[in-house]
From TrEMBL:
Residues annotated as domain Beta-lactamase-related: 149-463
Record's signal peptide: 1-19
Name of the protein this chain belongs to: Serine hydrolase domain-containing protein
Database matches in Pfam families: Beta-lactamase
UniProt keywords, alphabetically: Hydrolase, Signal
Superkingdom: Bacteria
SUPFAM superfamilies: beta-lactamase/transpeptidase-like
Gene Ontology molecular function terms on file: hydrolase activity
Organism: Parasediminibacterium paludis
Length: 476
C-alpha cells in the first residue's frame, strides 16, 4: 500500500453515486469532467485522460510520469466499485470506494474546470462522532424526520459543532437546533443564537441598492465613477462599470483587492484594517482585464465598494443603513454588525476547517460584502419578507432586487440574489462563509418555502441548506 499512500497527483475519477449526490454547481462540474476521465482510464487511454488536466497537474506530473502512474498503478486498481460521495470541503469532493482494500478519493477541479487534485489512499473512517450530538428535534412529524435525515448526518460528522435551522412551510415557522454553541460546552443552540451570516449580507446590500433606486438617489445603470472621489473616477478603466454590475458580480473587478494583504496584521482578521484609503488606492490603479457586464466573477470587492457608494449617497454608515432601512422596519431585532456585550454572549463560537476556534470577522470598508451577524429567527423572518404574500414594508425594494440582471447559462443573478432554477425565476438563494461559519438562505416563491441554515463550522453548511430546500420541495 505504500504506492497508494504516496499517490497524490492531479486527476479525477467519475463516480456512480450510491448514497448522497453532489448538488452544487462545482460538484456537478467535477463529476462531469471526471466521467470523461473514467472512460479514458477504463479503455487505458492515458494520453486522452491527460488532455483533461490543468496546468498545475501538468507541472506536478509531467506526461511521461502520468503514463507510468497509469500503467503501473491505476490500471491495476481498476475497476473501482461501490463508490459513494461523502462530502465536499474546500472544493474537494471526498468519496469512499472498494478496491484491493477500502479506499478514499479526494478530488477537485481548478478555476478553468480542468483536473487539479486527486488523492487516493486507504479509507479513513473519520466521518462520525463517537457520541451523537444533542438536538431539540422531536423526530415525530414527517417534517421533523426530513430535517433530521440531513442534519443528523451533518452534525455527527467530525469537525461540525453546531447548527440552527429555520423553516417556513405551509404557513408556519419551524426551528431545529443541533450540537453545541462551542465545543464541549453542552449548550444547544437556539433560534436566538447569533452566527456570522457572511455573504448573505450581500442580499441586504442589494435591498439597499434597490431602495436607493426607488428613492431616486441613483439609477442601476449609473457609472460607479459618478459616486467616487474625482481622483478615483479619473481612472478610465472604472468608467464603464455600473452599480448594477457591482451587485450582480459582472463588473470585472476581482474577488478581492490585491492590496488587502498589505493591510493585514492578524491573519484571522483579513478585513479589519481595509479602509477607504486602501480601497480608493486600489481603484486608482485598477486595470480592467475584461469588458464589464459580460463575465460572471464573484466579487467581495465589488459589493463592498457598492456599500461604500451607498454610504456616500446617504451620508450614513453601512450598519446604520441596514438597521434603519431594513432591520427596524421588519423587526429584525438581532440582526446587526456591532455587537453589545450581551449580544456577544449569544454569539456561537466559530471553528475553521482544522477545528480551531476563530474569532468573528471585523470589517471597515468592505462591510457590505459580509459583516452582518444574525440568528435563525431573524434570518427566517428576513427570508419571509422576500415572499410577496407577506406584503413586506420592503416589498417594492425586494421586487426590484429579485429581477434577473445577468445570466451566462451557468450563473443567473438578480441584484445580489442568485437563482437556483434557470427556467423559473422563483427560487432565490445566497450562501455565506467566514473563517468560522457557513450559512444559507433559500426562498421558493412558488411553493412558499423559506429555509435558513446557520452553522458555526467552516465545512459545508451552506450546501446543506440547498439540500434541505430540495427535500422540503419534495415533501410539500
Amino acid at each position: 500500500m505504500k504506492c497508494l499512500m504516496s499517490l497524490c497527483f492531479f486527476c479525477c475519477v467519475f463516480l456512480q453515486v450510491q448514497a448522497q449526490q453532489p448538488t452544487t454547481i462545482q460538484e456537478i462540474k467535477t463529476d462531469s469532467v471526471a466521467q470523461k476521465l473514467l472512460q479514458y482510464l477504463a479503455h487505458k487511454q492515458a494520453d486522452s485522460a491527460y488532455t483533461l488536466a490543468g496546468e498545475a497537474f501538468k507541472k506536478a506530473l509531467p506526461h511521461d510520469t502520468w503514463i507510468a502512474v497509469c500503467e503501473k498503478q491505476l490500471y491495476g486498481l481498476m475497476p473501482f466499485r461501490n463508490i459513494s460521495f461523502l462530502r465536499s470541503k474546500n472544493g474537494i469532493n471526498k468519496y469512499k470506494m472498494d478496491g484491493i482494500v477500502p479506499l478514499q478519493l479526494l478530488i477537485s477541479l481548478d478555476n478553468t474546470d480542468k483536473i487539479q487534485v486527486f488523492l487516493i489512499q486507504p479509507f479513513q473512517d473519520d466521518t462520525r462522532k463517537k457520541v451523537p450530538s444533542a438536538t431539540d428535534n422531536a423526530k415525530q412529524t414527517s417534517l421533523d424526520k426530513t430535517v433530521d435525515t440531513l442534519l443528523e448526518n451533518y452534525i455527527n460528522t467530525l469537525g461540525n459543532v453546531g447548527a440552527s435551522v429555520g423553516i417556513y412551510i405551509n404557513g408556519k415557522d419551524y426551528f431545529y437546533n443541533y450540537g453545541e454553541t462551542a465545543k464541549d460546552n453542552k449548550q444547544l443552540p437556539t433560534n436566538a443564537t447569533l452566527y456570522e451570516i457572511g455573504s448573505i449580507t450581500k442580499t441586504f446590500t442589494a435591498t439597499l441598492l434597490a431602495k436607493a433606486v426607488i428613492d431616486k438617489k441613483l439609477h442601476l445603470e449609473d457609472a460607479i465613477t459618478k459616486y467616487l472621489p474625482d481622483s478615483v473616477a479619473a481612472n478610465t478603466d472604472l468608467q464603464a462599470i455600473t452599480l448594477q454590475q457591482l451587485s450582480n458580480h459582472s463588473s470585472g473587478l476581482p474577488r478581492m483587492p490585491i492590496n488587502i494583504s498589505f493591510t493585514v496584521t492578524n491573519y484571522l482578521q483579513p478585513y479589519e484594517n481595509y479602509d477607504n484609503a486602501a480601497l480608493f488606492a486600489f481603484l486608482k490603479q485598477f486595470k480592467a482585464t475584461r469588458k464589464p457586464g459580460v463575465t460572471y466573477e464573484y466579487s467581495n470587492l465589488a459589493v463592498g465598494l457598492l456599500g461604500v457608494i451607498l454610504e456616500r449617497i446617504y451620508n450614513k454608515s453601512y450598519e446604520q443603513l441596514v438597521l434603519e432601512q431594513i432591520a427596524k422596519p421588519v423587526g429584525l431585532n438581532n440582526t446587526k454588525i456591532t455587537l453589545t456585550q450581551q449580544d456577544s454572549t449569544l454569539l456561537a463560537q466559530g471553528y475553521n476547517e482544522k477545528g480551531e476556534a476563530v474569532p468573528a470577522w471585523r470589517f471597515k470598508s468592505l462591510a457590505a460584502c459580509g459583516a452582518i451577524k444574525s440568528n435563525a429567527a431573524d434570518l427566517l423572518r428576513y427570508g419571509k419578507q422576500q415572499l410577496a404574500v407577506f406584503k413586506s414594508p420592503l416589498q417594492a425594494y425586494n421586487q426590484l432586487a429579485h429581477q434577473p440582471t445577468f445570466s451566462d447559462g451557468v450563473q443567473k443573478v438578480a441584484l445580489g440574489w442568485h437563482f437556483l432554477v434557470e427556467d423559473a425565476d422563483v427560487v432565490w438563494q445566497h450562501g455565506g462563509g467566514t473563517y468560522g461559519c457557513r450559512t444559507m438562505l433559500c426562498v421558493n416563491e412558488a411553493k412558499g418555502i423559506v429555509v435558513t441554515v446557520l452553522t458555526n463550522n467552516a465545512t459545508n453548511g451552506d450546501a446543506l441548506g440547498i439540500k434541505l430546500l430540495q427535500a422540503l420541495e419534495r415533501l410539500k
